[in-house]
Amino acid sequence: MTGTSIASIGIRPARPEEARALAVLHTRTRTAYYTAGGLPATELDGAERILPYWERAVAEGRALVAATSEGRVAGFLMTGPPKFDDVDAASVRELQQIGVEPGGWGRGVGGLLHEAFVRRLHADGLTDGVLECWEANARAQAFYARHGWRPDGSRRPGPLGRDYVRLRVTVPL
Q: Name one Pfam family in it (predicted).
């Protein structure tokens, strides 16, 4: 992402042929934040293990990419119905993934992807979003807080004894 202007980044639906590249990018992003939180990289799944996850998300239209004007993928967004039993899928969407090439963190790509999530919410006539974030991922926690996400009290066990914390946001139409 070095030298790429945020103005040259566009958000578009992911293409089937990009599923492998998305799995590789997802592997890089999660390795960066999990290892920053103390989890050894050897405990994380590689791109081949998560490729079917991305192939399904792309096929279902749940994946968007942030791409440069040259077509290089700089980040991704995945959304969908919430996987939580206590959340009404008719009124809430889950932000399942935002990932940005680690070398491009802090340059606005994540913000563009978050805006795309809000647009998807509104296109579905919704205002409420939900997500889970590993509590040891301080960078993501701060990013979501800046965008109005707040813990809703729900937690589940995560690696290294650090929970996944559920966050919610309401973005008026």
A: Acetyltransf_1
Give the start-to-end residue ranges of the domains of the chain. Answer: 6-170
Task: For residues 126 and 104, give the distance between their C-alpha atoms in angstroms, rounded to a whole number.
Answer: 30
CATH topology of domain 6-170: Aminopeptidase (3.40.630)
Q: Is the pLDDT of residue 69 over 90?
A: no
pTM over 0.90: yes
Residue environment code for 75-109, b if the CB has 16+ CB neighbours within 10 A, otherwise e? bbbbbbebebeebeeeebbbbbbbbbbeebbebeb
Residue 103 near residue 73, CB atoms below 8 Å: no
Angle at 126 between CA 93 and CA 119, to 5 degrees: 85
- Coil, strand or helix at 80: strand
| Gap between the Cα atoms of 139 and 102, Å rounded | 12
CA distances from 44 to 28, 29, 51, 100, 145 (A): 10, 11, 14, 18, 26
Contact by Cβ (8 Å): 125, 92: no
**49-65 pLDDT per residue, tens:** 999 999 999 999 999 99
Q: CA 25 from chain center: how many Å?
A: 12
Dig out the tokens for 12 from the structure.
């578009």
